[in-house]
């Protein structure tokens, strides 16, 4: 016994910081560390330094713990081959979503000429897609929270693919109106790919990876325009609809490779399935699994709307709804304003002309020219620098300040349009405004899945997406109808809305930068992990229940 005790004294004691909540006592939770006190053994702890984002070595994986959480496993396994595959797959979903949205600006003028549609029917063809998205976003979020992220995503993708291809065979206007509305209903579920994606990402990589998904959106819009240039003159719009569904078809086939979220499995009581998923990821990444037993979270009712309005999340939910509304309202409004401003030359031209309207038949139409396609292409390219700027600042300033900054810069550019600037300066201001409003949109996509717990994460994202569609529905009445009365009032509405959204971003109660995803809605913010990459000598841990 004495010999064993002597050997035990010689062993270094390795100190590990807790990276997740556990079922231990409140005193343990407050300390954030666990030591085995043995009489006669030195109490000093030897710190083991790990590089930022480095996985815990296999021989040291949870040596003093007998339990771990999904968050611990995701952080220990790190970013690797599995996440790269998942990034491409999620990007495909976003690319398909972008193509289905971009096709609206190509399909509408084509059908306007081919079927001799009046202007209000052409506008309705676009609006019905947003109505479908708005009405389904909350439903897809509820399905994803109750039956699994993978289940909700698969159903929505297959739904969109089926009705997207079917709309290519629409014989008359009423048919394509209904079918495109059903396509919009399916597209409302595509944002749930971000929920699934975020739950497999380690903390340090999460913001960058979700932001880079915007690159796939931009690629999708560019690809749609290029596809239209080659397909429309020779094969027509029906073939364009069929070929535009190819990314959805590829995703539908590959999504069966997707595992269900381990966080969802733990919350729903499927411990064995969660462990199997984590082991699969660890194997693909060539990283060790944490030792010990996976903690089963407290069973909760999932996907309940009232959980978004608990005292901890009520203010966050309302502010996020306005932020998402403002993002879509301003983004799609700018897209519509760009065409109007380019045609007029500048703001002063619109104001002075008062739209000297000639008696013009509402059935008069013009097919899109090659120059029109190039204009669509150039305005889309502005989103690439927006992503890069947001990518650079989001982990430096934090999510809240990044969103606020994007809104302020958009508002400032809108106000500068009051000046009678030339065509080149007009193009530059519109380019900067679109870059930052698209960057702000992506920052909201980073923040929203991070702030809600697993039980309501998909529903929270779904309701926010639904509010964004409300903004997209309203904005044509401002960017097109109000513009005819006063261009200055129109610009003031967009600028004012974004200034209010910037304030809303600052007033959000929780900053999610450097925080792990919250697992249980019964634990307040601040009881989650802080992150492994810190080099502080003390144990950094936020106070229970704190909201920054």
TrEMBL record:
Biased composition (Polar residues): 537-548
One MF annotation (Gene Ontology) recorded for this entry: transmembrane transporter activity
Domain (Major facilitator superfamily (MFS) profile): residue spans on this chain: 86-513
Membrane topology value: Multi-pass membrane protein
GO annotation, cellular component aspect: synaptic vesicle membrane
Keywords tagged on the record: Cytoplasmic vesicle, Membrane, Synapse, Transmembrane, Transmembrane helix, Transport
Coiled-coil region: none
Top-rank taxon: Eukaryota
Cellular compartments annotated: Cytoplasmic vesicle, Secretory vesicle, Synaptic vesicle membrane
Pfam families per record: MFS_1, Sugar_tr
Entry's transmembrane regions: 86-108, 120-143, 155-176, 182-198, 210-231, 237-258, 312-332, 376-395, 402-419, 425-447, 459-479, 491-510
Annotated segments matching region Disordered: 519-548
NCBIfam families associated with the record: 2A0119
Family, as annotated: Belongs to the major facilitator superfamily.
Name by which UniProt lists this protein: Synaptic vesicle 2-related protein
Native species: Ursus americanus (American black bear)
Gene: SVOP
């Amino acid at each position: 016994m004495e010999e064993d005790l002597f050997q035990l004294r010689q062993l270094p004691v390795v100190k590990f910081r807790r990276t997740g909540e556990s079922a231990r006592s409140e005193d343990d939770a407050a300390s954030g560390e666990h030591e085995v006190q043995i009489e006669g053994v030195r109490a000093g702890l030897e710190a083991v330094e790990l590089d930022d984002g480095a996985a815990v070595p296999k021989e040291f994986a949870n040596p003093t713990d007998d339990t771990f959480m999904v968050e611990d496993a995701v952080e220990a396994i790190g970013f690797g081959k599995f996440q790269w595959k998942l990034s491409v797959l999620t990007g495909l979903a976003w690319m398909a979503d972008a193509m289905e949205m971009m096709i609206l600006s190509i399909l509408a003028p084509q059908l306007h000429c081919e079927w001799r549609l009046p202007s209000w029917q052409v506008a309705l063809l676009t609006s019905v897609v947003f109505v479908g998205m708005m009405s389904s976003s909350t439903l897809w979020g509820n399905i994803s929270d109750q039956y699994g992220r993978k289940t909700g995503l698969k159903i929505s993708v297959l739904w969109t693919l089926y009705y997207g291809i079917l709309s290519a065979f629409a014989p008359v206007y009423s048919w394509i109106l209904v079918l495109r509305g059903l396509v919009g209903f399916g597209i409302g579920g595509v944002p749930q790919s971000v929920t699934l994606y975020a739950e497999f990402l380690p903390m340090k990589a999460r913001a960058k990876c979700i932001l880079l998904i915007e690159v796939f959106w931009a690629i999708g819009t560019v690809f749609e325009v290029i596809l239209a240039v080659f397909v429309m003159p020779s094969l027509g719009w029906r073939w364009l609809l069929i070929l535009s569904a190819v990314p959805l078809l590829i995703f539908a086939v590959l999504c069966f490779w997707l595992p269900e979220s381990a966080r969802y499995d733990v919350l729903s009581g499927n411990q064995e399935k969660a462990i199997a998923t984590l082991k699969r990821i660890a194997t693909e990444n060539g990283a060790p699994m944490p030792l010990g037993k996976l903690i089963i979270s407290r069973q909760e009712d999932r996907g309940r709307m009232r959980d978004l309005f608990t005292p901890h999340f009520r203010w966050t939910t309302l502010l996020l709804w306005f932020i998402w509304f403002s993002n879509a309202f301003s983004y799609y409004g700018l897209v519509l304003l760009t065409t109007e401003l380019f045609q007029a030359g500048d703001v002063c031209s619109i104001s002075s002309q008062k739209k000297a309207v000639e008696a013009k038949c509402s059935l008069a139409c013009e097919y899109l020219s090659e120059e029109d396609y190039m204009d669509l292409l150039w305005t889309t390219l502005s989103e690439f620098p927006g992503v890069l700027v947001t990518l650079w600042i989001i982990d430096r300033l934090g999510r809240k300040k990044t969103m606020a900054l994007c809104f302020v810069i958009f508002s400032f550019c809108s106000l500068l349009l009051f000046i009678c600037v030339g065509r080149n300066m007009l193009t530059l201001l519109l380019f900067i405004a679109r870059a930052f409003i698209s960057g702000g949109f992506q920052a909201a996509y980073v923040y929203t899945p991070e702030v809600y717990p697993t039980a309501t994460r998909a529903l929270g994202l779904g309701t926010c997406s639904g509010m964004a569609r409300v903004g997209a529905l309203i904005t044509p009445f401002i960017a097109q109808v109000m513009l005819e009365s006063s261009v200055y009032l129109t610009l003031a509405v967009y600028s004012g809305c974004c200034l209010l959204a910037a304030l809303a971003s600052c007033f959000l109660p929780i900053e999610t930068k450097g925080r792990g995803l919250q697992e249980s809605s019964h634990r307040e913010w601040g009881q989650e992990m802080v992150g492994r990459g810190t080099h502080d000598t003390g144990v950094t841990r936020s106070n229970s229940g704190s909201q920054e």
